[in-house]
């Protein structure tokens, strides 16, 4: 039954890329939340599907999401859909003609694309499908090169590449609105970046993190384990002013051995500021400093809009902090000779996260987000291992598998309460607030897992084990 | 180091209670022209300790005609915002040090980057 549908009840279709699948929903939700819009979808919603129907939104909301998302490939105003071509046809005939009319005008140009997920169609079959849509009142002229309006027929042939059905499970038809920002993954690739390190975050994930953190223009964003600044680069792309600290003098100053295969030493233009300059966002560079994250430098009332970071896991870059301790660890080799690297001690992984959450509780604005990676030993993982804090609400927890026994989880938390003095000691009272037990346990387990794989029974002992 | 950052830093030397603001001793200061963004400046002003900002500007000989107290309705005063923009983001300490006002401990600034690391037992 055709019912008049005003702007308010338009439906939209998101076509999502098929990687970082777990990270997609929190990203889209965060971007909608930037517009104070809820994520509202159909009853048949399946998170794993590449096609999501959205409702309760305006076209501006969709354009805004697409201007930020690296998970979303493209977006459409949904005109009809169904599980068969007949259902699609019925659905399209029910779509109000007055909503179609503005885009089917006689003096306009258009083209129709056919997209098939999990199946390849030969050219003539694509043409057949387009021809089958001629019951729609297209009055304009086809222009394949530069049309004013683009329409798309999207077919979902499921997710099993070894069992592709003859007919699609679901078919959608709509008017193309905007593409996502997946191009950023290529244009910001670390392969082309001036200054990289062993643990520079890949571009796609950096942007996903900035989106999970709801970073927006004119925000002040901080990374306490800034390394080569990959996360700051992504945040500055979205207009945020950025600052960071790191305990490693050489990385902050961009000196020492290079991480690139054919390069021995870092060049003069290799530092975080140069990275921002490379992408035209140098005006958003505030400062970087050499500092120990376990001893924060900020006055009590200093607050950031977001904290986005990738703390050390203790594998490729060891976890360190300054301080006196019985076990003296050899300071890293120092190319410049002039920097004073104080004696390092093992920074227990449990301390890193307890400190980070406590720091975020005090130094985020209310409503601000903390986004960080948590290394996980998969055989022992349970949800209770994710650290909590009374002032922070857990928003999402997305896994990226690194190996059969390790993964890392992108944790997003939002500050929902200002800390009181009692909160500072909460991590001592409740074991849930320090789920990491043992000394550098992740590093041990990572290496012990590796030696077991090599057929040895002995546990590996990392150099700086206590 | 920019003064926006300096305004938020405090001394974390063990036992120090009056470590703010850190005294700036600059041997090289640069002023870069940076795109003026009124929105950002307006957002940062409420986060600032105004008297510490004025003090820092004086240490660098850059206080020019900044008022000693925040003016009301600053969001709509472009001339004022431009002055704040300049002092927060365009003035940079390239070489020098930051000194803890209570303990006297100095933290070097080299190539614009402060080194805030403490030694064992500090």
TrEMBL record, chain A:
<keyword id="KW-0820">tRNA-binding</keyword>
<comment type="similarity">
    <text>Belongs to the class I-like SAM-binding methyltransferase superfamily. TRM11 methyltransferase family.</text>
</comment>
<dbReference type="InterPro" id="IPR002052">
    <property type="entry name" value="DNA_methylase_N6_adenine_CS"/>
</dbReference>
<feature type="region of interest" description="Disordered">
    <location>
        <begin position="414"/>
        <end position="440"/>
    </location>
</feature>
<dbReference type="InterPro" id="IPR059073">
    <property type="entry name" value="TRMT11_N"/>
</dbReference>
<feature type="domain" description="tRNA (guanine(10)-N(2))-methyltransferase TRMT11 N-terminal">
    <location>
        <begin position="11"/>
        <end position="182"/>
    </location>
</feature>
<keyword id="KW-0949">S-adenosyl-L-methionine</keyword>
<dbReference type="GO" id="GO:0000049">
    <property type="term" value="F:tRNA binding"/>
</dbReference>
<dbReference type="Pfam" id="PF25904">
    <property type="entry name" value="Tmrp11_N"/>
</dbReference>
<dbReference type="GO" id="GO:0005737">
    <property type="term" value="C:cytoplasm"/>
</dbReference>
<dbReference type="InterPro" id="IPR000241">
    <property type="entry name" value="RlmKL-like_Mtase"/>
</dbReference>
<protein>
    <recommendedName>
        <fullName>tRNA (guanine(10)-N(2))-methyltransferase TRMT11</fullName>
        <ecNumber>2.1.1.214</ecNumber>
    </recommendedName>
</protein>
<feature type="compositionally biased region" description="Basic and acidic residues">
    <location>
        <begin position="414"/>
        <end position="430"/>
    </location>
</feature>
<dbReference type="GO" id="GO:0043527">
    <property type="term" value="C:tRNA methyltransferase complex"/>
</dbReference>
<keyword id="KW-0694">RNA-binding</keyword>
<dbReference type="GO" id="GO:0008033">
    <property type="term" value="P:tRNA processing"/>
</dbReference>
<keyword id="KW-0819">tRNA processing</keyword>
<keyword id="KW-0963">Cytoplasm</keyword>
<dbReference type="Pfam" id="PF01170">
    <property type="entry name" value="UPF0020"/>
</dbReference>
<keyword id="KW-0808">Transferase</keyword>
<comment type="function">
    <text>Catalytic subunit of the TRMT11-TRM112 methyltransferase complex, that specifically mediates the S-adenosyl-L-methionine-dependent N(2)-methylation of guanosine nucleotide at position 10 (m2G10) in tRNAs. This is one of the major tRNA (guanine-N(2))-methyltransferases.</text>
</comment>
<dbReference type="InterPro" id="IPR029063">
    <property type="entry name" value="SAM-dependent_MTases_sf"/>
</dbReference>
UniProtKB/TrEMBL annotation, chain B:
<dbReference type="GO" id="GO:0046982">
    <property type="term" value="F:protein heterodimerization activity"/>
</dbReference>
<keyword id="KW-0963">Cytoplasm</keyword>
<dbReference type="Pfam" id="PF03966">
    <property type="entry name" value="Trm112p"/>
</dbReference>
<dbReference type="GO" id="GO:0005654">
    <property type="term" value="C:nucleoplasm"/>
</dbReference>
<dbReference type="GO" id="GO:0048471">
    <property type="term" value="C:perinuclear region of cytoplasm"/>
</dbReference>
<dbReference type="InterPro" id="IPR005651">
    <property type="entry name" value="Trm112-like"/>
</dbReference>
<protein>
    <recommendedName>
        <fullName>Multifunctional methyltransferase subunit TRM112-like protein</fullName>
    </recommendedName>
</protein>
<dbReference type="InterPro" id="IPR039127">
    <property type="entry name" value="Trm112"/>
</dbReference>
<dbReference type="GO" id="GO:0030488">
    <property type="term" value="P:tRNA methylation"/>
</dbReference>
<dbReference type="GO" id="GO:0070476">
    <property type="term" value="P:rRNA (guanine-N7)-methylation"/>
</dbReference>
<comment type="similarity">
    <text>Belongs to the TRM112 family.</text>
</comment>
<keyword id="KW-0539">Nucleus</keyword>
């Amino acid at each position: 039954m055709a019912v008049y549908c005003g702007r308010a009840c338009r439906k939209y279709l998101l076509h999502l890329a098929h990687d970082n699948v777990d990270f997609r929903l929190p990203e889209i939700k965060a971007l909608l939340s930037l517009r104070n819009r809820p994520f509202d979808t159909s009853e048949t919603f399946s998170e794993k599907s590449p096609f999501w129907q959205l409702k309760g939104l305006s076209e501006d909301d969709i354009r805004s999401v697409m201007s930020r998302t690296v998970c979303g490939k493209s977006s459409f105003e949904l005109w009809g859909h169904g599980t068969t071509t007949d259902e699609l046809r019925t659905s399209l005939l029910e779509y109000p003609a007055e909503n179609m009319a503005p885009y089917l005008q006689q003096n306009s140009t258009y083209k129709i694309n056919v997209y098939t997920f999990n199946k390849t169609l030969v050219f003539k079959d694509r043409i057949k499908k387009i021809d089958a849509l001629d019951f729609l009142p297209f009055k304009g002229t086809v222009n394949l090169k530069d049309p004013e309006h683009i329409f798309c027929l999207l077919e979902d042939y499921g997710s099993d590449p070894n069992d592709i059905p003859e007919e699609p499970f679901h078919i959608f038809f709509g008017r193309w609105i905007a593409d996502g920002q997946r191009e950023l993954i290529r244009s910001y690739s670390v392969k082309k970046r001036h200054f990289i390190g062993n643990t520079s975050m890949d571009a796609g994930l950096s942007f996903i993190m900035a989106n999970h953190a709801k970073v927006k223009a004119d925000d002040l964003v901080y990374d306490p384990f800034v390394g080569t600044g990959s996360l700051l680069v992504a945040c500055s792309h979205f207009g945020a002013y950025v600052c960071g600290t790191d305990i490693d003098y050489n990385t902050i100053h961009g000196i020492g051995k290079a991480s690139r295969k054919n390069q021995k030493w870092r060049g003069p233009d290799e530092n975080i500021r140069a990275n921002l300059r490379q992408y035209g966002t140098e005006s958003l560079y505030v400062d970087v400093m050499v500092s120990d994250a376990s001893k924060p430098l900020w006055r009590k009332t200093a607050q950031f809009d977001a904290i986005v970071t990738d703390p050390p896991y203790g594998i490729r870059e060891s976890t360190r902090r300054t301080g006196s301790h019985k076990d003296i660890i050899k300071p890293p080799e120092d190319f410049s000779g002039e920097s004073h690297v104080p004696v390092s001690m093992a920074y227990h992984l449990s301390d890193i996260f307890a400190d980070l959450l406590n720091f975020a509780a005090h130094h985020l604005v209310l409503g601000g987000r903390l986004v960080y990676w948590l290394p996980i030993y998969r055989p022992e993982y349970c949800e209770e291992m994710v650290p909590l804090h009374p002032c922070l609400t857990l928003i999402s927890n997305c896994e990226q598998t690194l190996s059969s026994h390790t993964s890392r989880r992108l944790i997003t938390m939002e500050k929902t309460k200002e800390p009181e003095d009692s909160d500072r000691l909460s991590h001592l009272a409740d074991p849930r607030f320090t789920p990491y037990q043992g000394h550098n346990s992740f590093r041990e387990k990572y290496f012990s897992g590796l030696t077991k794989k090599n057929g040895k029974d002995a546990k590996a002992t990392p150099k700086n084990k206590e | 180091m920019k003064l926006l950052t300096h305004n938020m830093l405090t001394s974390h030397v063990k036992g120090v209670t009056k470590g703010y603001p850190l005294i700036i001793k600059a041997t090289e200061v640069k002023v870069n022209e940076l795109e003026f963004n009124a929105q950002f400046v307006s957002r940062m002003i409420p986060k600032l300790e105004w008297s510490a900002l004025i003090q820092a500007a004086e240490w660098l000989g850059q206080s020019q005609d900044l008022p000693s107290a925040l003016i009301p309705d600053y969001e709509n005063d472009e001339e004022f915002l431009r002055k704040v923009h300049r002092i927060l983001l365009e003035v940079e300490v390239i070489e020098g040090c930051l000194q803890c006002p209570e303990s006297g401990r100095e933290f070097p600034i080299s190539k614009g980057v402060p080194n805030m690391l403490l030694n064992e037992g500090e």
